[in-house]
Design goal:
CATH topology: Non-ribosomal Peptide Synthetase Peptidyl Carrier Protein, Chain A
Helix content: 55-70%
CATH superfamily: ACP-like
Strand content: under 5%
Distance between the termini: 23 Å
CATH class: Mainly Alpha
Shape: globular
Structural class: mainly alpha
Number of domains: 1
Largest sheet: none
Number of strands: 0
Radius of gyration: 12 Å
Oligomer: single chain
Order of helices and strands: HHHH
């Protein structure tokens, strides 16, 4: 598990404490019962604070899984670091 994945997993654990590592890696709006609009706002806030990134409002509805958020944050961090 790389640093980004580990840190993002901790963010998910903070918002969805009942999920184990495998469930977090496979997490999506469809697989996590408690992933509603309030959980989404909370999750994105936690991630923004952890990584120092900001989500574009038009992108938020596409961020419906751990993998999509992982890809998005990874791309944002690369742009910031370049």
């Amino acid at each position: 598990m790389n640093d980004l994945q580990a840190r993002l997993s901790r963010c998910f654990s903070a918002v969805f404490p009942g999920l184990n590592a495998q469930q977090i890696a496979a997490a999506s709006v469809q697989t996590v019962e408690k992933w509603d609009s309030i959980a989404m706002v909370t999750l994105l806030s936690v991630i923004e604070e952890e990584f120092g990134v900001q989500f574009d409002p038009e992108d938020i509805e596409t961020l419906a899984s751990f993998q999509k958020i992982f890809d998005y944050v990874g791309a944002r961090r690369k742009v910031v670091n370049d």
